[in-house]
Write a structure and sequence with these properties.
By secondary structure, this protein is mainly beta. It is built from three helices and 34 strands. The N and C termini lie far apart (62 Å). Keywords: Membrane, Transmembrane, Transmembrane helix.
């Protein structure tokens, strides 16, 4: 007869449950902490602004051998683009992809040029640097660090009355339309740069003599003291209309603000990203013992939703186009200096509006450009720049070269760190892990590849619309992907 084995049916002790709960709690905390750390790490990588990069990150929850990697293309070069499959226009100064700018650049015959020179007033400095700006019958003149109104010297604002004042500059802001004005919608802008320890602080004032109380001229400070704080010396440039104007600090790395006024309320938009070192900077040897960074003194022209920036500084010609969005905020920019051949052999260029953009008839605006060559004879010529917006005659694309250089197969990917402007719904994306079969992709949505391969590509298509005045702009594209080592 077999013995019956006695089964111990005692319940686990209270200490056992406490230990179990403690273990579960610790595991939960570790898991949440890891996920939080992983999210912070990926977030930090996506925000790295200065260079393209590729950095493997271990992702143990994808499996014992799974890895994650990230990459961002800032479009500062062509190293990560497939040149033969890229038809979009690449602006190497602004580091963007867009439709190609479309314009006419015509040299005028001597007889026509002579007639136009007598009619058109170009904003430019005198040989000694004197700047004269007139609004109606009154003229404001800047000579060195001094300011004169109709020949009478006027005192500068208190912040500029210091031995640390480096320079001042002026600009004239005109009415919204060319109509007879009582002076309320036209005024001058004064900018001054003061050395402040190891930095340079810019001040901007509205100067309106008609608003003066008593004998002292009226200066109204526009921006906060920190809005134009820079490690680089520079000079101000201004332009626009009374309801919408720009202040640009022209330095090795520029600072710029758009000021919009409606119903006596002003709003300010920082547009400094369109004036980076690639656009503004140049390093030259001055008379001082050490090398100093200098840039150019900007001058601003507004024509409808288009803005044009050129240089008043000798031997530093520049031509930049800015475009507004539907809310009249400047949202995109193109450096057209090289497109017009102004980057070599040119001493100076001065621009003036010949005919403004006609929105009712869709007629493009035109600028006249007075060019002085940097040859021995300093020959001058007059050209006409007619702006047709952008060439949207067909869809254009950009395709990357292989992004994954890591030793493994790509199993999934997503687009991250995407920065684009004026795109509407006309920018389409795809991802591929072999360059043959493509899967449509949307920002921050993961694409899974059922057939893992060793490569990774992205592709974008710009689908044209009827608005030729603007172009979608792709400023930055980031990728995150998972791969399994071989």
């Amino acid at each position: 007869m077999q013995k019956q084995r006695k089964i111990d049916r005692r319940r686990p002790s209270r200490d056992f449950f406490l230990a179990l709960m403690a273990g579960i709690t610790i595991l939960t905390v570790v898991t949440v902490g890891f996920l939080y750390y992983q999210a912070r790490l990926v977030g930090r990588i996506a925000r790295i602004p200065a260079f393209e990069f590729q950095l493997p990150i271990g992702l143990p929850f994808f499996g014992p051998t799974a890895q994650g990697s990230s990459f961002t293309d800032l479009f500062s070069g062509t190293g990560w683009l497939n040149a033969s499959n890229t038809t979009l226009y690449q602006d190497f100064a602004m580091t963007t992809l867009s439709y190609p700018p479309k314009f006419e650049w015509e040299k005028l015959a001597d007889e026509e040029a002579k007639k136009l020179k007598e009619k058109i007033l170009f904003v430019r400095l005198e040989e000694d640097g004197t700047d004269k700006r007139c609004t109606g019958s009154q003229c404001l003149i800047q000579k060195g660090l001094e300011l004169f109104l109709d020949g009478q010297k006027i005192s500068l604002p208190s912040e500029l009355r210091t031995p640390e004042l480096l320079n001042i500059s002026i600009g004239a802001i005109y009415p919204v339309r060319n109509i007879i004005s009582n002076g309320a919608d036209k005024f001058w802008i004064l900018g001054g740069v003061v050395k402040d320890g190891g930095q340079y602080r810019g001040y901007v004032y509205k100067f309106d003599p008609s608003a003066s109380s008593g004998q002292a001229p009226e200066f109204t400070k526009i921006f906060e003291d920190s809005d134009f704080l820079s490690p680089y010396p520079g000079m101000f440039g201004f332009g626009g209309t009374s309801d919408n104007w720009l202040a640009i600090y022209g330095a090795y790395e520029g600072i710029a603000w758009q000021t919009k006024t409606k119903n006596s309320f002003s709003s300010f938009h920082n547009i400094s990203r369109f004036f980076p070192i690639r656009v503004m900077g140049d390093s030259v040897k001055l008379k001082e013992a050490k090398e100093r960074f200098v840039s150019f003194r900007p001058e601003v022209i507004r024509d409808g939703k288009n803005w044009y920036i050129y240089s008043l500084t000798p031997a530093k010609p520049k031509f930049i186009k800015l475009v507004e969005d539907e809310e009249e905020k400047i949202s995109a920019a193109w450096d057209l200096t090289k497109n017009l051949g102004l980057d070599s052999g040119v001493e100076s260029t001065f621009f003036a509006v010949e005919s403004p953009f006609d929105s009712a008839q869709g007629k493009p605006g035109s600028l006249l450009v007075l060019i002085t060559k940097s040859d021995e004879e300093n020959k001058t010529e007059l050209r006409r720049f007619r702006d047709f917006g952008f060439d949207k005659s067909k869809p254009l694309e950009a395709m990357s070269s292989n992004i994954n250089t890591l030793p493994g197969n790509v199993v999934s990917a997503r687009i991250s760190g995407l920065q684009k402007f004026l795109d509407g719904e006309n920018m389409l994306f795809w991802l591929s892990n072999d360059g043959v079969f493509w899967k449509e992709a949307k920002a921050y949505e993961t694409v899974v590849f059922t057939d893992p391969q060793e490569k990774l590509f992205w592709r974008v298509k710009f689908v044209p619309d009827d608005d030729l005045k603007t172009s979608p702009v792709l400023d930055r594209l980031g990728l995150e992907w998972q791969w399994v080592p071989n």
